[in-house]
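User: quick one, sequence for these tokens?
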């Protein structure tokens, strides 16, 4: 595959998975959260609160608020990221409208309660899990569903702060605002809405961080083999991975040998073991999880660098 073809393939893949993510989010929100008037965070949560109070369609509020946020985010996130965000916002707007149109309605205009009466808690769990997975799918493919996701992505671009932590701070304020609207009932009923909203927020962001960290998780291999040259060559050519060769000395045998040190994504572990076993079934291999790997091919170091030419920055 040529470089241009690879770029096109990656772009198509990103847009495909962004579409899948926003579709899953739309149906999770419409089927499991809206019927029970469960409030979530983000711009979707704000739009839902306005819809429950005024009846103004939430997809319209969603697109209006995101229009203002996109103008602010243009300089921070860049045009490439913004194009995918615009695409995700438009798709989510259409999918929210489509999901509400095709799903049967209750007398109050909300979608029917698929889980049945009194199943608020179970519906909340399913909706939060699915929406968390949906958001992770969008973020992992260089996109955003807009709204507070844009703010979270902006912070995450420059600081090593998890997306879930940023979203939680914003969502606390959005969900807590339910206490100030009498349309949600008396104080006990409002508190009920807030508690359910906090549960959705916690589960959604936990799933978001879990899925993203699982995809990014890296491992370290230490390979001891007499066929170290063949293994290193195979890993470098077939898996396109860098290999560090260390000098080893066996304490018991007194023999010198080479040790291969390799950092890879966890999802590549099976292929790595398969390749090693094909060359040397008797190789001694150690695999360990690492907290973080930064540099070419892995994550970017998101820390500020002081200007040591300035005497004030030197301690």
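Assistant:
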């Amino acid at each position: 595959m040529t470089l241009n073809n690879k770029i096109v393939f990656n772009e198509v893949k990103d847009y495909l998975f962004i579409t899948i993510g926003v579709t899953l989010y739309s149906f999770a929100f419409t089927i499991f959260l809206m019927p029970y008037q469960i409030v979530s965070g983000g711009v979707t949560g704000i739009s839902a609160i306005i819809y429950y109070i005024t009846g103004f369609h939430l997809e319209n509020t969603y697109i209006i608020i995101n229009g203002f946020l996109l103008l602010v985010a243009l300089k921070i996130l860049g045009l490439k990221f913004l194009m995918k965000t615009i695409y995700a916002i438009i798709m989510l707007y259409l999918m929210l409208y489509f999901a509400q149109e095709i799903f049967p309605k209750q007398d109050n205009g909300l979608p029917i309660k698929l889980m049945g009466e009194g199943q608020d808690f179970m519906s909340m769990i399913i909706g939060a899990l699915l929406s968390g997975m949906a958001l992770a799918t969008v973020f992992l493919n260089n996109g955003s569903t807009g709204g507070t996701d844009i703010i979270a992505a902006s912070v995450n671009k420059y600081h090593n702060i998890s997306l879930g932590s940023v979203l939680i701070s914003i969502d606390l304020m959005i969900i807590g605002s339910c206490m100030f609207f009498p349309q949600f009932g008396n104080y006990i009923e409002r508190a009920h809405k807030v508690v359910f909203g906090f549960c959705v927020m916690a589960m959604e962001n936990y799933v978001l961080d879990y899925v993203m960290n699982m995809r990014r998780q890296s491992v370290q291999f230490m390979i001891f083999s007499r066929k170290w040259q063949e293994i290193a060559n195979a890993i470098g050519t077939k898996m396109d991975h860098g290999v560090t060769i260390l000098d080893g000395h066996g304490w018991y045998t007194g023999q010198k040998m080479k040790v291969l040190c390799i950092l890879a994504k966890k999802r590549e572990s099976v292929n790595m073991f398969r390749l090693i076993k094909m060359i040397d079934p008797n190789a001694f291999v150690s695999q360990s999880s690492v907290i973080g790997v930064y540099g070419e091919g892995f994550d970017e170091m998101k820390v500020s660098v002081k200007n040591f030419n300035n005497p004030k920055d030197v301690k």
